[in-house]
Amino acid sequence: MFYEPSKGHGLPHDPFKAIVAPRPIGWISTVRGDGSPNLAPYSFFNALGTDPHLVMFSSEGEKDSVTFARETGEFVVNLVSHDLVEKMNASSVDAPRGVSEFDYAGLTPQPSRLVRPPRVGGAHAALECKVTEIHRPKGLDGESGERFMVIGEVVGIHIDEAMMTDGLFDIVKAGSVARLGYMDYAAVTEIFSMQRPRWK
After folding, report:
1. pLDDT digits (tens, 9 = 90+) for 28-50
2. Residue 21, Cβ density class (10 Å: 0-12 exposed, 13-18 middle, ≥19 buried)
């Protein structure tokens, strides 16, 4: 089949997110100006590069994570692992502003080193970030709509040393979880390696 997204797909559900998958989950913690914490998962999240280490999360609508990241210039990305996936899902609740998703999901905030937003206690890795840019991506019509891309430089990295194997972060041991389409998720249970070819 072939379809043009602007004209509809004729399927029970849009397959776009199932095709562009798996996607890492940006479990973003921020703080309000008064220091109260906020926590929410974003399925549009990824690394942008190294030197400097940059990550981004994108929100459809200016949600609290975007607002607070703009106000304070900081956020933390917490790794979603299989042992925390239910609590991650709980933190996606559409709670009114001022309600702590940490409390609602039964999570314990842990202090960060270089930024104000707390980390998720029990997360096997966390990236402390400072905002570098907030973009409003545009479509072909030149309109940005209600999309916000927050880019941050990673200034500090926390790793649970129990998740290391021979000096490498072991994502199978960590049980890293990715977002798929629809209501689906995937857990990393095995990996394989390949060496890049070199032109001689």
Report:
1. 999 998 889 999 999 999 999 99
2. middle
Residues 6+ apart with CB under 8 A from 99: none
Let me know: does 65 contact 117? Beta carbons within 8 Å: no
Residue 7 sits at φ, ψ, to 5 deg, of -105, 0
The span from the CA of 40 to the CA of 65, in Å, is 7
Look at residues 159, 171, 168 and name the one whose alpha carbon lies nearest to residue 24. 171
What are the distances in angstroms from CA 82 to CA 76, 88, 124, 200? 19, 10, 11, 42
Q: Which two structure tokens, joined as six digits, stand for 50?
A: 């190294």
pLDDT tens, residue by residue, 120-140: 999 999 999 999 999 999 999
Rounded CA-CA distance 150/71 in Å is: 12
Count the neighbouring beta carbons within 10 Å of the beta carbon of residue 17: 16
Q: Reply yes or no on whether the pLDDT at 88 is more than 90.
A: yes
Percent residues over pLDDT 70 in the chain:
100
Residues in the chain: 200
| Residue listed under structure tokens 């973003």 | 28
pLDDT at 144: 87
Q: Is the C-alpha dihedral spanning 26, 82, 162, 172 positive or negative?
A: negative
